[in-house]
Amino acid sequence: MIRVLVVDDEQVIREGAARVIAECVPDAEITACATPSEALQKLEEKDFDVAFLDIEMPGMNGIELAKRIRDASPDTNIIFSTAYPEYAGDAFGLHASGYITKPLTRDKVMAEISDLRHPVEKKDRGLRVRAFGNFEVFYDGKPLHFRYTKTKELLAYLIDRNCAVVDIGEIRAILWDDDEDRTSYIKQIRKDLSDTLKSIGYGDAIVIIRGGIGVVPGKISCDYFDYLAGDSEGEAAYHGEYMQQYSWSEMTHGSLESREHNDR
């Protein structure tokens, strides 16, 4: 996956550029911004592999924005897109990866994407859940932190249930071995899970309905899901350990062991 930033103050051009880029790079994650300030805010949240920048923009122009992006993320490829060819000298003085005169076309975009100054390396990006071994949650290769410890366990159980919608009664019975009313706390950890995933752009990874919550199929990358799908990498990731820190995981662990035994 390649991350692309598009900055242009004209909506029609901005949306058109994003559409052309998506046609050229179908698996690209494209973020389109109307202002340089919005773009810089997005840059604080994530790194981008390529930035397509308009030059003539009110406030901060594309040349100054490129300097700010280069300072914050030196490996981001800067490609200027403008109707003003006289800026070419300034652009290449910044060691830009490319310079496109508007309008953007598939041929122009493909020519620049295929000859980037900084090659795009495959990175461990996005939301990734590890169920084999200890249960862990990562975003962009770093541990994802929740407000409550039980929030992480709730996500683990939803993963274990393989995308089934789970009601509050079942959550209470699994996460707490007592008879106390945990309804209020469960609502808090459910909200914490929802808010945390929304903060990284994965708010659609879970569904919350009246009295229940579940993981949406296909929205979370997980070694356990890969294993169940027969994916070779998922099968290779299993070494006899599954969500070790949670005692309730033993039933699924037993099923995994039986499957491994039958496959031998």
Short description:
The protein is 42% helix and 17% strand. It is of the alpha/beta class.
Structure explained in plain terms:
This protein is α/β, with parallel strands linked by helices and 264 residues long. It folds into two domains: 3-113, Rossmann fold, CATH 3.40.50.2300; 127-263, no CATH class. The chain is built from eleven helices and twelve strands. It has helices spanning 11-24, 36-45, 62-72, 88-93, 106-113, 149-160, 168-175, 183-199, 223-228, 232-237, 250-263, and strands at 3-7, 29-33, 50-53, 77-82, 98-101, 127-130, 136-139, 142-143, 166-167, 206-209, 212-215, 221-222. The strands form three sheets. Strands 2-1-3-4-5 form a five-stranded parallel beta sheet, with helices on both faces.
Q: What's the total number of strands? A: 12
Number of domains: 2
With strands numbered from the N-terminus, the spatial order across the biggest sheet is: 2-1-3-4-5
Task: Count every helix, treating DSSP H or I runs of 4 or more residues as helices.
Answer: 11
* Gross geometry: elongated
Structural class: alpha/beta
What is the helix/strand order? Answer: EHEHEHEHEHEEEHEHHEEEHHH
Q: What is the radius of gyration?
A: 23 Å
Q: Helicity range of the residues?
A: 40-55%
Q: Per DSSP, what share of the residues sits in E-state strands of 2 or more residues?
A: 15-25%
Main sheet characteristics: 5 strands, parallel
